[in-house]
Every structure is written in C-alpha cells, then in structure tokens.
C-alpha cells in the first residue's frame, strides 16, 4: 500500500487544528493563531513520522499522551495544573466525540447488501469491522461531527446559565403559603411609583381560588381598575384581601401606559442551591392573566432587587 506522507501531514494538520479550535470554544479560550498552528503542526508531524520512520516506541500509549499534552501546552499555555488538566480533558473529550461521530455517520451513510458484509471473524472468535472511507466523506463527516458537538455544548451551556437564574420561592400571605419556581429577570425594573416597592410578576391562576370569582380569567381582557370598580359597586369590602390590592402603572411594549393588579404579601422567601435563603418583605406581586412560560418551567418572575435582600432573618414587613 502506498502512503503519501505529505497528504497524511496536511490531513492531520487540518483535523488537529479543527479539534484544537473546538476545544478552545468549549473552554472559552482564545489562543493566538500562532499557538493554534503550532499545536496542530506538532500533531501532524507526529502522525507523519509514524509512517515515515519505523520507531516502535512512537506507537506506545505514553508517547501518544505526551504528544497530546505538548499540543495542549503549545496551544493554550500552562496556566497552572488545574487549568492544564481541564484543557487536556476537554481536548480528549472533543477527540472522542468527533471520532465517534465520524464512525457513526460513516456507518449510517454506508450502504451494503448485507449487514455481515463489513464483518469478519478471527480464528479465535474475535469480530473485525472493516471501515473504509474516502477523503471527501471523511472531511464532511468530521466537520459535521464537530458542528454537532459544538451545538450540543452551546445548548448545554445556555441551559446551565438559565438554571442559574431559577429560584424556588414561597409566598406567605395571611394564613396561606404558596411555593413555586421563579425566574430572575435582570431586566425587570417595575416599581410602585409611590412607594418605590419592587414588583414581581406571578401567574394569577395560582390564586384562582383566592381571587374573586372570575377574576383570574378576566384579567386577560378586562382592565384591573374595572375589576376593582365592580368590587366597590358590589359591596365586596369584606373580601379578605381587599386592603392588599394595588394598581401599579407600567409601560407596555407598544409604549402605552397600563395598569397591573398587584397584591401585597406578608413576605416572599427565596432559596437556591448554593445560596443562602432570602426573605423579602417590601414587595408587590403583580398578577398576569396568562402563562409566563410556555413549557411550564416557571410561574413567577423575580425582581432583581429581591436577590439583593437580606438573609431570611429580615425584619417584619411594613405596610405599603
């Protein structure tokens, strides 16, 4: 069999460079082009020398690991033992993921008359899978594998970042208590204009049984001031939460000023793994007639000021 060492070199140069670049993306690093090129050249030279010179110990496990380690060092630098270990593990993770993708995609695209066509058995009962791939197919499947790996890594990273914004909250009001999952919205700057109390948002359906009959559904179409006006006309002053109801003006997406029905709770407790529990006493809960999350991931939106509250030993709430 004829092996063209120059093709081996340039093929491995492209592959090693792509893997190192994908590793940099996974680790959120920005190596210079010189460093990236140096690491890829080292890997390509190693692959070419294996065909050019017959040196048995070059095929050993230890030498392969050492070459990989030097490639990572050349590309990303040292940065301490922990940083080096993370870069090295990420490099092999990308290698295994892309190689597995190449082999999997090649067998998926490969057509054969029989599933046994690419298999053979050794005299001692071992199974040999014959794998052949043209250069063009290898390049296509390799790039597709890298893209799939990067896409899944970015999706996982975004999901992890979103998880950091989730809080478990408990609303205490009179003798009742309601627990739910909430999303911290750093862009929420809604305050009561008179008291400057922050306003969090919650689905009104959570309080379907506590609100006056029909309010939960009517909030989608009827202005909250009209609901309060009907309450006054129907002499519903005996409603237990009557003195807790507020109207909070806010600006809609179209620039028009609207009113939101809000309720003053006794306290809102926030908790999250790895974070001390918080208690917020000065807060209003704005009621949304719809669904905040189409997937049902959360049912309330936390005001960013609430995450800056004191620990759960806060002073008793003050009337708004």
TrEMBL record:
The answer to whether keyword Transmembrane applies is: yes
Query: Which stretches are transmembrane?
Result: 36-55, 61-78, 90-111, 131-149
Which biological process annotations from GO are given for this protein? Answer: asexual sporulation; proteolysis
Q: Which InterPro entries match?
A: SpoIIGA
Per its UniProt entry, which superkingdom is the organism in?
Bacteria
Q: Where is the active site?
A: 185
GO molecular function ontology, one term from the record: aspartic-type endopeptidase activity
Q: What keywords are assigned to this protein?
A: Membrane, Transmembrane, Transmembrane helix
- Where does the UniProt annotation place the signal sequence? none
What protein name does the entry list?
Stage II sporulation protein GA (Sporulation sigma-E factor processing peptidase)
